[in-house]
């Protein structure tokens, strides 16, 4: 069953040529898709259309759920400086009602799973960049979204922190059976995370590459299958082969 479907979606910013031009995409429930493509090809715009933050000029976005079932993580963590970490995580709840005990426990559990339990009472500026990204992830997961949309959430992080966050994101999404659409420039990141890599070119999906890897451990990054998939994505992006 598909949770999200883009049917011939077209979108232009007023006075500009189309940014998204006939995009088709189908994301099955529980699947992890990565959108990769050159700067300016329309990835963020596609994500905003999927989230309902932008409305297509033509075509349809079909999401089998309610708007509150969608979580969004941006490139910068966008945490509220005057709130403690735990209150930042609970923000989507607080916007509706005073958090209940079970919601507080759930927020603490998310922080625990992301290795931040002892930082719950700190302010965001007392955390490192990677820790702040984890808080943003916990905040996006607090309402248990069925669809999680992420726009280069780890782009500003160092390579080691990035690998750890990729591993933790996969574990969290598997545990909660979250469906994911993840935008990245990084081919290795896309191949490590995704069941399917969607290559975006000229505002549409030019190719979808199924990723078949046995296990998403750190070791898989050095496997022949991983390198092969990276080459496939590079070819779809018209980049020169590495070998
Ligand atoms: N508000 C806007 N008004 C006019 N044009 C816009 C607006 N926002 C984005 N664009 C244009 O739409 C195109 C696609 O932008 P988008 O942010 O979707 O690309 P992207 O693939 O996410 O890029 P990057 O990888 O650099 O983040 C770009 O040419 C951009 O200049």
Automatic annotation (TrEMBL):
Belongs to the ABC transporter superfamily. This is ABC transporter ATP-binding protein. Keywords: ATP-binding, Cell membrane, Membrane, Nucleotide-binding, Transport. It comes from the Bacteria. The keyword Transcription does not apply. GO terms for molecular function: ATP binding; ATP hydrolysis activity. Residues 4-227 form the ABC transporter domain.
